[in-house]
């Protein structure tokens, strides 16, 4: 019940998969991953199938889980906006760590750093 409160899914506990939205399903998947109080949460493209509003909600939840529950999230993403919620980013090119950056004070500034580095890597949009 504690995990469902953290993720704001108390109203979904009795629902079936086909009765919830993509964002709700993603929050439910995060809840399942948190049940046993892990210190590390692995997330593979957690916002890939979500609209922008649901993506923002999920990324804010990862931030909250990190700060309040002291759980580290290791995430794979191609989405610069999702990446901007992270504290540290490793860029991998051809299977090798190419660069590493850390968030400063501003998420917007960090987002711009990500975009600039992606352009250097040849992966800019």
Automatic annotation (TrEMBL):
<feature type="domain" description="ABC transporter">
    <location>
        <begin position="7"/>
        <end position="47"/>
    </location>
</feature>
<dbReference type="Pfam" id="PF00005">
    <property type="entry name" value="ABC_tran"/>
</dbReference>
<dbReference type="GO" id="GO:0005524">
    <property type="term" value="F:ATP binding"/>
</dbReference>
<protein>
    <submittedName>
        <fullName>ABC transporter ATP-binding protein</fullName>
    </submittedName>
</protein>
<dbReference type="InterPro" id="IPR027417">
    <property type="entry name" value="P-loop_NTPase"/>
</dbReference>
<dbReference type="GO" id="GO:0016887">
    <property type="term" value="F:ATP hydrolysis activity"/>
</dbReference>
<keyword id="KW-0067">ATP-binding</keyword>
<comment type="similarity">
    <text>Belongs to the ABC transporter superfamily.</text>
</comment>
<dbReference type="InterPro" id="IPR003439">
    <property type="entry name" value="ABC_transporter-like_ATP-bd"/>
</dbReference>
<keyword id="KW-0547">Nucleotide-binding</keyword>
